[in-house]
Specification:
Blueprint: H1 7-27, H2 35-73, H3 75-113, H4 115-145
Helix pairs in contact: 1-4, 2-3, 3-4
Length: about 150
């Protein structure tokens, strides 16, 4: 039986599994051919390069914050900050990765199957980020509390 302290971890894990299953389902939709696929790949690559550059800069800022938190509030607060930053960064990366993959599939669905199909792909593509943010938050808080 799960204790109350383990519930956030369990729900966080369930949310991450749900996000993965939605992502796997989105990948089954057509992603276009030829020039459309080339442009989509370039957008995805550009977004990933941007995220890597952004995260490198954020790491410096986080390091400064960690030192300040450790000096002023202690090791527990610094560890909580690190865990929160890792959870947030992970959610951001997964969200950007899945959004750029869903983007072209939304456009292809709109072109081949209409607005309703495109809205469906876009909605579920966006839900991955929401599920990931909430799930990572639950996992982080659950780990800290436990």
């Amino acid at each position: 039986m799960l204790t109350n302290a383990l519930l956030p971890i369990a729900f966080g894990a369930v949310g991450m599994v749900a996000a993965f299953l939605i992502y796997a389902n989105i990948l089954k939709t057509p992603s276009g051919e030829g020039r459309v696929k080339e442009i989509a790949d370039e957008i995805h690559l550009g977004a990933m390069v941007f995220m890597a550059s952004e995260y490198k800069r954020l790491a410096v800022f986080c390091l400064i914050c960690i030192v300040a938190l450790y000096a002023s509030l202690g090791i527990d607060t610094a560890i909580a900050f690190i865990l929160g930053a890792v959870c947030s960064g992970t959610a951001g990366y997964i969200g950007m990765y899945s959004a750029t993959k869903a983007n072209v599939r939304t456009a292809v669905a709109a072109n081949t199957r209409g607005a309703a199909a495109a809205l469906n792909v876009a909605f579920f593509g966006g839900s991955i980020m929401g599920l990931t943010v909430a799930s990572m938050g639950l996992l982080g808080i659950g780990v800290l509390y436990h």
